[in-house]
Design a protein that fits this description.
Helix 1 runs parallel beside helix 4, helix 2 runs parallel beside helix 3 and helix 2 packs across helix 9. By secondary structure, this protein is an alpha/beta fold. The chain has one domain: 3-Layer(aba) Sandwich (Rossmann fold), CATH 3.40.50. Helix 3 links the parallel strand 2 and strand 3. The structure holds guanosine-5'-triphosphate and magnesium ion.
């Protein structure tokens, strides 16, 4: 058990180091990366289709990298916006890692890109632990998934800079309890902003884009209070679960994002620095 924990932490620490380097590199290229996480089918691609078109319409050239285990379906959908799009097939892996990102960002996206949307593999567990060099992490959940998902997936929701409740147009039909959901979010990530969106009606899409573009322009994203901790829930690729206590408490410092010994963060995707 201890060895599994050690190996796991070494993998995450290596990923964090690569992600910190990638964030600096993207910063140097003038690109802000936005990592979108949700369970399968919550509406990441549907929302991105709108965000790509609207970002371009507001004079901020976007690009999208979308990850799946199989098919290029999402890339095809996103490419209709006219934005540069890349499909990553993860070869069975349930999440994206910084090393994969780096490989895909060599010579891509085009130089004028200002915002890079990354659609992670549909999964609320594995992707949560991997920092991809993003500046903004958005976690989505749709109204049909159940109000308690934030407390059931505290790593994903606890490390979000912004939470999106998607498919708001179906809220009434689903009998969605907005107050219970808000309470559930507040328990794992106090103070995080929650936006309600619908890719059908367009509700909340401009508000979400406003938040993204503000971060592109240097606004500080909400800093998750769980930043700095390796949390207890995680399912491993090798098929079993175990828990480990927070191993260290080095919240990434917004003022000095690279102040951790070694110049890198020890955090899995947490407390992403403002730009
Ligand atoms: N009513 C409604 N349906 C939506 C909305 N957003 C997405 N959908 C539908 O939900 C289904 C899944 O949407 P996707 O955008 O493919 O979801 P995803 O999160 O990208 O899925 P994966 O990439 O497979 O994880 C599709 O049938 C969409 O048309 C929404 O706001 N309202
Ligand atoms: Mg998708």
């Amino acid at each position: 058990m201890c060895r599994v924990v050690d190996v796991r932490q070494a993998v995450l620490a290596r990923n964090d180091g690569l992600a910190a380097g990638l964030r600096r590199e993207l910063d140097g290229r003038g690109i802000t990366a936005v990592n979108l996480l949700s369970s399968p089918g919550s509406g990441k691609t549907a929302l991105l289709e709108l965000l790509l078109a609207r970002a371009a319409g507001r004079g901020v050239p976007p690009a999208a990298l979308t990850a799946d285990l199989a098919t290029e379906n999402d890339a095809r959908r996103l490419a209709r916006s006219g934005a540069p799009v890349k499909q990553v097939l993860t070869g069975g892996l349930c999440h994206l890692e910084a090393a994969q990102m780096r490989g895909h960002l060599e010579g891509w996206p085009p130089e004028d890109t200002r915002v890079l949307f990354v659609e992670n593999v549909g999964n609320l567990v594995c992707p949560a632990a991997y920092d991809l060099g993003e500046t903004l992490r958005v976690v989505l959940m749709s109204v049909t998934e159940g109000e308690d998902k934030p407390v059931k997936y505290p790593t994903a929701f606890g490390l979000a800079n912004l939470v999106v409740l998607s498919k708001a147009d179906l809220g009434e039909a689903a009998g969605f309890d907005g107050d219970a959901f808000a309470e559930s979010v507040e328990r794992v990530n106090p103070g995080v902003e929650v936006l309600h969106t619908s890719a059908r009606t367009g509700q909340g899409v401009d508000a979400l884009l406003d938040r993204v573009l503000a971060v592109c322009e240097g606004a500080r994203p909400h800093r998750p209070p769980l930043a700095g901790r390796h949390l207890s829930e995680h399912r491993h690729e090798h098929g079993h679960e175990h828990s480990h206590e927070p191993s260290h408490g080095h919240p990434r410092d917004h003022e000095h994002p690279h102040a951790h010994p070694g110049g890198e963060s020890a955090l899995p995707g947490a407390g992403l620095p403002a730009r």
